[in-house]
Design brief:
By secondary structure, the chain is an alpha+beta fold. The chain contains nine helices and twelve strands. Strand 5 and strand 6 form a beta hairpin. Belongs to the Ntn-hydrolase family.
Length: 311
């Protein structure tokens, strides 16, 4: 089974001044994840490594560089899922954890639960000796400035998803040489969100889903819209039925007619052939590495309808 890893850098229109940093970021994350697969690691190990890389990169809205809530604080959400066992772990509203995707994996492997939130998640992190940092170290000067400029959540959502001033949820999907798939998604949410707000990223079947029988998905975009339709599981449901045209029509309907869905998602089928699926008018950046083709692909969207391929 050829190994594959695909990484996305969020549903946002990338400003010219950040284009190189964003492309370099997803490339490095994809290569980091793929190096795990090359060493014989699992798909689960690969997506964790790739997303940790993005969480450590201040260019992206996850871990370091995350956006701020209404109180000017960081609240982070993440999920990870193993397609072989359907094992899942997630955390929400954590503050001083630089790599929430790893805490999500610990929830999966060391507790009987699927999702821990806020103080409980942080207490669990302390109990297992997970590294923490002062929350202020996760905040960049640029994000603090943007937060000051966009103090209205409603206006901020409109501006962020129609401009080049935002950055968004990151994620990864992978299939390993044994044919096992996995997904991981991590985010700081939406700037000026209410304290305690949880979007799709930490919710199984919404921000991510992985099942060996069908594939793996990581979503990015407007969380409330994704939550309404359990988007990740919806995509895999259509893939299981082999109804690509139906999926195409379904997403168009949800985008344009009913839920004002704005999302970008990457399903990777269990046979290991990465497919970049339909997306809305929002833009994103992605990178993939496939062992079978012995090649890497990088993609940068800077404006609606414009696609730049970088090899």
């Amino acid at each position: 089974m050829p190994a594959v890893v695909v990484v996305h850098g969020g549903a946002w229109s990338v400003p010219d001044k950040l284009a190189k940093a964003v492309v370099d970021g997803v490339k490095m994350a994809a290569l980091d994840g793929f190096s795990v697969l090359e060493r014989g690691g699992s798909a689960l190990d690969a997506v964790e490594a790739a997303v940790r890389n993005l969480e450590d990169n201040v260019t992206f809205n996850a871990g370091h560089g995350a956006v701020l809530n209404a109180d000017g604080d960081v609240e982070l959400d993440a999920i990870i899922m193993d397609g072989r066992t359907l094992g899942s772990g997630a955390v929400s509203s954590v503050k001083n954890i630089p790599n929430p995707v790893s805490l999500a994996r610990a929830v999966m492997e060391k507790t009987p639960h699927l999702l821990l939130t806020s103080r409980g998640a942080n207490l669990f992190a302390e109990s297992i000796g997970m590294a923490t940092v002062p929350t202020d170290t996760l905040v960049t000067a640029n994000e603090r400035e943007k937060w000051e400029e966009h103090r209205s959540y409603v206006a901020g959502v409109t501006e962020d998803f129609n401009s080049k001033c935002a950055h968004d949820t990151v994620g990864a999907v992978a299939v390993d040489s044994a044919g096992n798939v996995a997904c991981a998604t991590s985010t700081g949410g939406i700037r000026n969100k209410m304290v305690g707000r949880v979007g799709d990223a930490a919710i199984i079947g919404c921000g991510g889903y992985a099942d060996n029988s069908s594939g793996a998905v990581s979503c990015t975009g407007h969380g409330e819209s994704i939550l309404k339709v359990t988007l990740a599981r919806l995509i895999l449901s259509h893939m299981e039925q082999g109804s690509g045209d139906t999926l195409h029509g379904c997403i168009l309907f949800l985008t344009n007619k009913q839920f004002h869905l704005h999302a970008f998602f990457f399903p990777v089928p269990s046979q290991g052939n990465p497919q970049r699926s339909l997306h809305s008018w929002l833009c994103s950046t992605w990178a993939s590495v496939c062992a079978a083709q012995e090649e890497s692909s990088w993609c940068l969207h800077q404006d609606s309808g414009q696609l730049n391929l970088l090899q």
